[in-house]
Amino acid sequence: MNKLITTVTLSTLSLAALLSSANADERGEAVARAYFSLKDPTTVRSSATMTLTDKKGATRNRSLEMYERKDSNGTASFIEFSAPADVKGTRFLNLPLDNNSTEQRIYLPALKKVRLIASSGKKGKFVGSDFTFYDMEDRDFEDYTYTYLREEKLGDRTCDVVTMTQKDPSAPYSHAEAWADTIDSFVYQLKLYDRAGGGHIKTLSVLETKIYDGCIIPVKVRMTNVADKTSTDLVLSNVDVNGKVDVKLFTLQHLEAK
Description:
By secondary structure, the protein is an alpha+beta fold. 15% of the residues lie in helices and 48% in strands. The chain has a 13-stranded antiparallel beta sheet.
C-alpha cells in the first residue's frame, strides 16, 4: 500500500478512536450528571437491620438507628447500634467539612472513648461489616471522571453502564462500574475495583427502593465482598424523609454522651 495512503488511513483510525472516546466520555458524564441531579432529601431518619453473612452462609443481625442531614457542605450522618450486646451503644458520626473532606469519628462503648478515623483507616471494615468507613462517605459528581461503556440489562431494568474513575489517589477503589436505569437515572449496581490489585473486589446492589417526597430512597441494599465471599444486607424501616432531625445529633458532644 502506498505510504501516504497508509498514513492517512492510520490517522483516520486514530481520529475515529479519539472521537469515539470523546463521545463516550460525554455520554458517560451525561448519565452520571442525571444521577447526581436527582432530588436529594434534606433529612432522613430510619431504623435498620444489618445482616452479616459469612462464607459458610451463617448470619448475624444487628439493629441500628440512622439519621442524615444535608447542608451546603454535604450530607452528615449519625448511626447508633442498639443490638446485639457486643455492638450496643456504638455510635458513628460522619461530618462533611467545608474543604471537601470528611471527618469520621466512632464511639466505642467498651472503651468509653471516641476514635477519629484517619484517612488511612477509612478502608477498614465498618463495625465488622462488608462496608468500609470510606463507603459511608457522601460522593459528588466532581469526585470522578466518566466513560460510557454500554447499554445492558440488569434484571428487568435497562441500564447505561458507566465507568467512574476516582480522582482521589488515596481512595481504596481505583474505579467503579455503575448500572444506571435509563428511565429513572438511579444507580442500581456498583462494581468496585481495588486500587492495590486492580481486581473486582465488591459489588453494591440496590435490591429495593421506595419514593418518599419525590426522592428515590434505597431501602434494601447488599454489599457483596467477592474476594472474601461474604455479604452485608442493610434493610431500612420506619423511614421518615424531610422531617425534623435535631442538628445536635451531628455533634461530638452527642457522640460522647453517656
